[in-house]
Amino acid sequence: MSAALQVTAFGLALLSTLFLLLATCTDCWMVNADDSLEVSHKCRGLWRECVTNMQDGVRTCDQYDSILADHPVKIVVTRTLMITADLLAGLALATLVLGLDCITFLKEDPCVKLKMCYGAGVIFGAGSILGLIGSVWYAVDVYVERAMLVSHNIFLGVHYDFGWSCWLGMAGSTGCFVASVLLTCCLY
């Protein structure tokens, strides 16, 4: 039972870590959600803003000037939290691989392997909380920005909704949290 639970947690953790990495690297955290006839599709992300022409499929991206340049708080905080969550999830995944019962590393000392699985669960928990805070922070800021424009009757021709990168960040963080719960609470 313990080995099956470990492998299940490992599979979920691997998939969730990949989701977190994809969310951090991709640039579609906000998408335009205009109801009119669109000729282009805009995505804003943590690293650049991309526009795709819907007629011919040509995509052009404008990278932000510098990582150290003045950026909105939502971008800086989300970058920091997501990168930290990625690093923690990667460390936890490496620790979990070494702690699995099916790996021959430290086979003679099962107590140490169990502690490694618990440690991986705690690290996954910390990473999942940081990733969830980063994703939700960005999503709430997009919502507040849109609500402020609507409440002031300002229409700029386009408004933004949450993009698939934001949803990937939330899904990856939630998956890491579930893997953390499996490793810390259910591994007896």
Automatic annotation (TrEMBL):
<dbReference type="InterPro" id="IPR017974">
    <property type="entry name" value="Claudin_CS"/>
</dbReference>
<keyword id="KW-0472">Membrane</keyword>
<feature type="transmembrane region" description="Helical">
    <location>
        <begin position="162"/>
        <end position="187"/>
    </location>
</feature>
<dbReference type="InterPro" id="IPR004031">
    <property type="entry name" value="PMP22/EMP/MP20/Claudin"/>
</dbReference>
<keyword id="KW-0812">Transmembrane</keyword>
<feature type="signal peptide">
    <location>
        <begin position="1"/>
        <end position="28"/>
    </location>
</feature>
<feature type="transmembrane region" description="Helical">
    <location>
        <begin position="118"/>
        <end position="140"/>
    </location>
</feature>
<comment type="similarity">
    <text>Belongs to the claudin family.</text>
</comment>
<dbReference type="Pfam" id="PF00822">
    <property type="entry name" value="PMP22_Claudin"/>
</dbReference>
<keyword id="KW-1133">Transmembrane helix</keyword>
<keyword id="KW-0965">Cell junction</keyword>
<dbReference type="InterPro" id="IPR003927">
    <property type="entry name" value="Claudin16"/>
</dbReference>
<dbReference type="GO" id="GO:0005198">
    <property type="term" value="F:structural molecule activity"/>
</dbReference>
<dbReference type="GO" id="GO:0005886">
    <property type="term" value="C:plasma membrane"/>
</dbReference>
<comment type="function">
    <text>Claudins function as major constituents of the tight junction complexes that regulate the permeability of epithelia.</text>
</comment>
<keyword id="KW-1003">Cell membrane</keyword>
<keyword id="KW-0796">Tight junction</keyword>
<keyword id="KW-0732">Signal</keyword>
<dbReference type="InterPro" id="IPR006187">
    <property type="entry name" value="Claudin"/>
</dbReference>
<protein>
    <recommendedName>
        <fullName>Claudin</fullName>
    </recommendedName>
</protein>
<dbReference type="GO" id="GO:0005923">
    <property type="term" value="C:bicellular tight junction"/>
</dbReference>
